[in-house]
Write a structure and sequence with these properties.
Layout: H1 4-15, H2 23-29, H3 35-53, H4 76-87, H5 89-103, H6 108-112, H7 134-137, E1 145-149, E2 152-155, H8 156-163, H9 170-183, H10 190-198, E3 201-204, E4 211-214, H11 222-225, H12 248-253, H13 274-277, H14 329-334, H15 343-358, H16 366-372, H17 379-396, E5 420-424, H18 428-440, E6 443-447, E7 459-460, E8 467-468, E9 473-474, H19 481-489, E10 494-495, E11 502-504, H20 513-536, H21 544-556, H22 565-582, E12 608-609, H23 615-622, E13 626-628, E14 633-637, E15 643-647, E16 652-655, E17 657-660, H24 664-668, E18 673-675, H25 680-688, E19 689-692, E20 695-701, E21 718-722, E22 734-737, E23 751-757, H26 764-767, H27 770-784, E24 795-798, E25 811-814, H28 821-827, E26 834-836, H29 849-871
Parallel strand pairs: 5-6, 5-17, 6-13, 11-21, 14-18, 17-26
Antiparallel strand pairs: 1-2, 3-4, 7-8, 9-12, 10-12, 14-15, 15-16, 19-25, 20-23, 20-24, 21-22, 22-23
């Protein structure tokens, strides 16, 4: 990374002697009249900066430039320029040579006279800085104007007020220029100074929406902008101010192509994105002014603990983080016109995303975003039009405006014809999609086979606390939409500690710390070995268990000490944990693709437990939706334009689109007949993904007998049960403390432990009665606490997901021979009519309620995109 001295030397050498004569701004005058041309000068400067870094440090973590703790990073564009320079070393020299040739021209009239064909012969000065301004003096004859944009020009006289020594604005320009050099990656020039510091603001009236020119030294805050009216700048006695027509230049700047006429990038002032990006990025590479960076929150940001919208180079990568300096793949597809110069799109996107993350408890509207979108000149009028597209796009993609929010006043699908959608399955993915589509403006009906919605998110309160019969654990708090919905609805969740005492099932004592650490490192070596095997070999897939055991045997033969029985049992506990994660015997799981989702960043932060269950989330999401319970779908006929849905109770429905949000096991049982039958890729996917199964057991006791494990605050989250043998590794592997202690009300205390069975032990709940299962649960605890007389239980819950014909599973996994692509194949829509959601369609976040919810957002967006593409005049490219 470039250090401060290198930067200073480059600019000092380039501008040596320039301040003493006006040749400095002969270079400024050489700027071409369009933004795309001005970027070439920016790139030349970047090449010089890159050349300077060759003499300094380029490790990406170097010294700061002007602020002691500011971290800098090369943008993607600069990296591409560097590659180009390496491939074509003469190109930069030719470019620089051409630049010097242009700057050496002595015909100032030729350079300063705007000859842009779109500007026309009639021009006026938009600054009027000098008392001798051409517009004020009404000078007759051909005059010289500097081009800023179509509709914005500066006369020669006012231009001289800025760039000539001794003139009123010269000192201010030099101060600004020095600041810009220290904080930016692009070359400062007079046009950029005018754009950033001198042009008037254009503000829209809250009553009529017309844009009016406002002369201000500094931008007004959003709160004042929201109150702006035409009467504040127009003093019309004969007509109402709002009836006065807008300036002609305003209409010009509404044209989509107007931005191609600007000569300096219109960077945003005081963007809310500063809250997240301050000291992390060059502001101009993310669309923000490097000088106008005054954005402060009135109070501490409450969302920082669980929301992190932008990737920070020095921090861990995590799910749902955007790179503020690069367009995502989907963004490039939707907004291809920004591919060459993405800064202006990034400015809008980053602003919108920042506003949403600062307050995700309210629906973020276009109008609110516009209040915070501030820049000088007519560019704000152009931004205002483009901002509509950006807000709609981010909403459809589920980047903003998701969760438990009220119905918005304006809907994206408000135009005719109306969209009718039937969603089959009332789990969290189906409800999430239904709520999104309803908010978009679609007519949605949910058909649920069971008498109750929620799918695998069901709570049992019979023990006095919420026992999640299905999902209750949140894997990673930061950016997790489940946590966001908890915050939106006031649903409590409890972050979990990393501390997990392991108790030996044979000795009844906590496992030896040395043995625990040794086996943990040994197991990590096995996982690393599997990773290396995957990357270096292309052999056929084998089971995860076989590969683990192969590496285990290989490693222990190289040990210079005996592999003790305690070590082996601790290893079986680790393997049991993986079986729980997959919901299956590891002999059935793919060694090559079992963890394929970790190819992308996952949710960060601590795991959390929904201490009051998920019922409140389901209730909030399903509020005001059209839900038909006891409607089991038997047949889907999509041979006609309208899809026909037949239910077992005789009811029939028709829809434009159908979204299936069913468990993988239901598809595999072929409970629904498809006309025509499912494509071959779907059938292949169904064969290569497995329906994993775990069952839960929760028991309530009259007292807490595990007090020896409690922390100083009197709580514990969980403790492990090291199995006595390999055969028992799936039997109550972990115990979670669900107890609800109330010191102020001793009568309201509930002592509950929950565990699960998986792997070889999962059929225990079907082979034995619930009473017998609970007896084994207590026997396992008695082995862990041999000195305790464990009391008889006073209540219990045992799940039977495997027997449920409408569920039949817990979560999916990749079978031997399968791969992550099979998740994508299952997620693909059929003829833009039939869509698929649920955790089994989410390649990168499977096996979790978070992944199921995200799939609902994804499919709602896909359905809306398809409808807009074929039935709307939307100017967002979703194809």
């Amino acid at each position: 990374m470039m250090n401060g001295n290198n930067i200073e030397e480059v600019w000092t050498a380039e501008n040596n002697g320039v301040l003493e004569n006006k040749l400095e701004d002969e270079n400024d005058l050489s700027c071409s009249g369009t933004l795309s041309s001005s970027s070439s000068l920016i790139n030349v400067t970047e090449e010089k900066l890159l050349e300077s870094t060759n003499n300094g440090t380029t490790n990406g973590e170097g010294n700061s430039i002007s602020r002691g703790n500011k971290r800098r990073r090369e943008s993607a564009e600069v990296a591409m320029r560097k590659i180009r320079k390496d491939l074509q070393p003469n190109a930069v020299e030719e470019e620089n040579s051409q630049g010097h040739s242009n700057s050496s021209e002595t015909s100032e009239n030729k350079e300063s006279s705007c000859e842009q064909s779109e500007c026309g012969p009639e021009k006026s000065c938009c600054l009027e800085l000098s008392i001798r301004c051409i517009d004020k003096e009404k000078t007759i004859g051909k005059q010289n104007y500097f081009h800023l944009s179509k509709g914005e020009h500066v006369c020669q006289v006012c231009f001289d007020e800025i760039c000539r020594i001794g003139r009123p604005y010269y000192d201010r320009y030099i101060v600004w220029k020095n600041q810009w050099i220290n904080e930016s990656r692009c070359k400062p020039n007079v046009r950029l100074f005018i754009q950033d510091q001198l042009l008037p603001f254009w503000i829209d009236c809250k009553k009529c929406g017309k844009f009016r020119k406002v002369l201000l030294e500094k931008a007004i805050p959003a709160s004042e902008m929201a109150q702006f009216e035409c009467s504040q700048v127009l003093d019309e006695k004969e007509v109402e101010p709002c009836e006065v027509l807008e300036d002609e230049c305003v209409q010009l700047s509404r044209e989509k192509s107007w931005i191609q006429t600007v000569s300096a990038p219109p960077l945003l002032h005081n963007s809310p994105a500063l809250h997240y990006l301050r000291l992390e990025y060059y502001y101009d590479e993310v669309g923000m002014s490097t000088i106008n960076d005054d954005f402060q929150l009135e109070q501490a940001c409450e969302t920082r603990e669980y929301m992190c919208p932008f990737n920070i180079p020095t921090e861990q990568s995590m799910a749902f983080c955007l790179r503020p300096d690069v367009m995502e793949y989907d963004e490039v597809q939707a907004f291809p016109e920004y591919t060459g110069e993405p800064v202006l799109y990034l400015a809008m996107r980053n602003l919108v995303v920042a506003l949403w993350n600062l307050n995700p408890k309210e629906y973020l509207t276009y109008e609110k975003c516009l209040l915070y979108l501030v820049c000088r000149g007519l560019a704000r009028v152009w931004y205002a039009h483009e901002l509509h597209r950006v807000v709609d796009y981010l909403t459809i993609k589920g980047v903003i405006n998701y969760g438990i929010l009220p119905l918005p006043a304006k809907q994206i699908l408000s135009s005719k014809p109306s969209l009718g959608v039937v969603i089959v399955g009332g789990g969290i993915s189906g409800i999430a999609a239904a709520r999104q589509l309803r908010n978009f403006g679609a007519k949605v009906t949910i058909l649920e086979a069971k008498a109750k919605i929620g799918g695998r998110l069901q709570d049992d309160w019979s023990l006095g606390v919420a026992v999640g019969c299905g999902a209750q654990l949140v894997t990673g708090i930061v950016n997790n939409p489940i946590v966001l919905m908890c915050e939106q609805s006031g649903t409590p969740y409890r972050p979990l500690s990393d501390a997990c005492p392991l108790i030996d099932g044979i000795t009844g004592r906590i496992a030896t710390p040395l043995a625990d650490k040794l086996v943990d490192e040994h197991f990590n070596c096995i996982l690393d070995g599997i990773g290396e095997w995957k990357s270096k070999t292309k052999s056929i897939d084998i089971s995860l268990l076989d590969q683990m055991m192969h590496l285990h045997e290989k490693f222990i033969t190289a040990l210079d000490f005996r592999w003790a029985n305690e070590f082996e049992r601790l290893l079986q506990w680790q393997i049991g944990n993986v079986e729980f994660s997959c919901g299956a015997l590891l002999s059935d799981v793919s060694a090559r693709h079992w963890d394929q989702n970790e190819a992308v960043p996952q949710f960060a932060g601590k795991h959390a437990l929904l201490s009051d269950g998920s019922s409140e989330l389901i209730r909030g999401l399903s509020e005001s939706l059209d839900i038909r319970c006891n409607h089991q779908v038997e047949q889907l006929d999509y041979t006609h334009r309208k899809i026909q849905i037949h239910c077992s109770n005789g009811k029939k429905f028709t829809a434009d689109k159908v979204l299936l949000c069913l468990p993988l096991a239901v598809y595999q049982k072929e409970n629904i007949t498809f006309l025509p039958e499912l494509p071959s890729e779907k059938q292949i996917a169904l064969k290569n993904l497995g329906a994993g199964l775990i069952e839960k057991v929760a028991v309530k006791f009259p007292r807490c007998f595990w007090t020896s494990l409690l922390r100083e605050d009197g709580t514990i989250d969980y403790f492990g049960n090291v199995p006595k043998s390999e055969k028992e590794r799936g039997l109550f592997n972990m115990f979670y403390d669900f107890s609800n202690r109330s010191p102020s009300n001793p009568k309201n205390q509930h002592f509950v432990l929950m565990s699960y069975v998986c792997g070889d032990s999962v059929n225990l709940v079907n082979e034995k009665s619930d009473v017998e299962v609970v007896a084994e649960f207590i026997d396992a605890l008695q082995e862990l606490f041999p000195d305790e007389n464990i009391p008889n239980p006073i209540g219990y819950v045992v799940t039977h997901w495997g027997k449920d014909p409408n569920i039949g599973m817990s979560y999916s996994y990749v079978k031997v021979g399968g791969c992550g692509e099979h998740y994508d194949m299952l997620a693909n829509s059929i003829q833009d009519k039939i869509y698929f959601g649920g955790e089994c369609t989410n390649r990168f976040f499977p096996q979790t309620m978070t992944g199921a919810y995200i799939s609902g957002l994804r499919e709602a967006g896909k359905i809306a995109e398809s409808w807009l593409t074929t039935n709307s005049t939307s100017d967002i490219n979703f194809s």
